[in-house]
Design goal:
Number of helices: 2
Radius of gyration: 18 Å
Number of strands: 0
Order of helices and strands: HH
Amino acid sequence: GYQGYIVALITGIITALFSKFILEKLVPVPPKDGEEESSHE
């Protein structure tokens, strides 16, 4: 009952924080470059 609900809530929060941390680690380059879009031209 409650345990499952608490676990799900904590898991969701941890997942969100973890995802944000991973994204920052995988994408350290700023999106200001936009060179890829110019390349398509």
